[in-house]
Write a structure and sequence with these properties.
With 337 residues, the chain is an alpha/beta fold. It folds into two domains: 2-123 and 272-294, 3-Layer(aba) Sandwich (Rossmann fold), CATH 3.40.50.720; 125-262 and 299-319, Dihydrodipicolinate Reductase, domain 2 (2-Layer Sandwich), CATH 3.30.360.10. The protein has helices spanning 11-18, 36-46, 55-62, 76-85, 101-113, 128-138, 156-170, 265-285, 295-314, 328-336, and strands at residues 2-7, 26-32, 50-52, 66-69, 90-93, 117-120, 145-152, 176-184, 198-205, 210-215, 232-237, 240-245, 248-252, 258-262, 318-319. A nine-stranded mixed sheet has the order 14-13-12-11-7-10-9-8-15, covered by helices on one side. Strands 3-2-1-4-5-6 form a six-stranded parallel sheet, sandwiched between helices. Strand 11 (232-237) and strand 12 (240-245) form a beta hairpin. Helix 4 packs parallel to helix 5. The mean pLDDT is 97.
Length: 337
């Protein structure tokens, strides 16, 4: 039986923990948070007795096989380094993996030297309906893929990383080739997930695929829902398409069939979280079962977002390979101010 521990006991961590009712290979053994009331509430809710306010103490005493890091983005590098120094076998860290060029590059260097398996928490990738649609696409049921469109109504740092991950998943993780982006608005830089209010980009890939990514109020609406409920992906092929959004889906397959349905995002999300977590244990048990949200893949995806920022700043298309400046986010803010 594997042992799992949690760093951060806020609302998002609840989602990580609820998935354990679908996980049989690990037990939640310890939690850590600086806020003792959150620590108590979380521990009482999930029946976890071992509670800490010092991450070093928890990792030293409990020696978990998996550490869930569910904290704000500006702590990513610091806390991933702590996990590395304590030789934690695997880590699931919340998205986004980074904020700007400096932490992106530092985390990349950490990943190169660390034995810890780092996985970024893009649980949408494991939603049951998305897995079904992904299987349809990969088995050729819409013909040859020609174009991918993804969007979300929160900003690029808030939800753009989720839809970027879906874009890469449906494109078989082909490397990006060019990015041409635009952005506007500076209110988002005042938040815990700092970036422009609205962003969009046209992206080409080495396999010949093209894609459009849109984030912010300029993104398509899928109904009368809060802003965070508008994540979606559409994939167009030579003989059909698939379209997924948070409460529904549709597909038109090459044999001429058309289907459309509704679903519960909340129900699918806990199953998606369980799927992502179980895939971590698969990787722990078998080195050949690489996790699709492992660090190198997630950093490639995030470099695409940084390239959007660069395109806005330089007012031209960005060609890959791309080495972002340490302060590219600050440059973006200055360009939009």
């Amino acid at each position: 039986m594997f042992k799992s521990a949690f760093l951060g006991c806020g609302g998002r961590a609840m989602g990580h923990a609820q998935a354990y009712k679908y996980i049989s290979r690990s037990k939640m053994v310890a939690i850590c948070d600086l806020n003792e009331q959150r620590l108590k509430n979380f521990g009482d809710t999930f029946g976890i007795e071992n509670r800490y306010t010092d991450i070093h103490e928890m990792l030293e005493k409990e020696k978990p096989d998996l550490l869930h890091i569910v904290t704000q983005p500006d702590l990513r590098l610091q806390l991933l380094t702590v996990a590395h120094e304590h030789n934690v076998p695997t880590v699931i860290v919340e998205k986004p993996i980074a904020i700007t060029g400096s932490d992106y590059k530092a985390i990349m260097e950490l990943g190169k030297k660390s034995k810890t398996k780092f996985v970024v928490n893009h649980q949408l990738r494991f939603h049951p309906k998305l897995l079904e649609l992904l299987s349809d696409v990969k088995s050729g049921k819409i013909g040859q893929i020609k174009f991918i469109e993804v969007s979300a109504r929160l900003n690029m740092s808030g939800q753009g990383t989720h839809i970027t991950d879906l874009m890469f998943a449906f494109n078989d993780y082909s490397e990006p080739e060019t990015v041409f982006g635009s952005a506007s608005g500076t209110e988002g830089f005042k938040t815990t997930h700092p970036t422009a209010d609205m962003s969009e980009a046209y992206i080409t890939f080495k396999n010949g695929m093209h894609a459009l990514l849109v984030c912010g109020k300029n993104a398509p609406s899928v109904g009368d829902y809060p802003d965070h409920y508008h994540k979606r992906i559409a994939v167009y092929g030579t003989h059909g398409f698939i379209h997924w959004w948070m409460e529904g889906w549709e597909k038109n397959l090459k044999e001429g069939s058309y289907e459309k349905g509704s679903k519960s995002y909340a129900e699918e999300d806990v199953l998606g979280q369980a799927g992502l977590t179980n895939a971590v244990f698969d990787w722990l048990e078998d080195e050949s079962k690489l996790h699709p949200n492992r660090l190198d893949i997630s950093l490639m995806e995030f470099s695409t977002i940084l390239a959007i920022f660069q395109s806005v700043v330089s007012r031209k298309m960005v060609q890959f390979p791309y080495d972002p400046p340490d302060d590219i986010l600050a440059q973006l803010q200055n360009a939009l101010s």
